[in-house]
Amino acid sequence: MRPNARARRITLRRSARDGGFAVSYPSRMAIRDVEAFVHDHEGWMLKHYKPVENVQIGSTIPFRGETLTVTQGQKRGVRFHGDDIEVKSPNTGRAVASAFKSQAGLYAVDRLDSYARMVGSHVNEIRWRDPKTRWGSCDSKGNIMLSWRLIMTPDWVFDYVIAHEVAHLIHMDHSHRFWKLVEDIYPEHMHARSYLKREGARIQSISFGKT
Question: pTM, whole model, 2 decimals?
Answer without folding.
Answer: 0.79
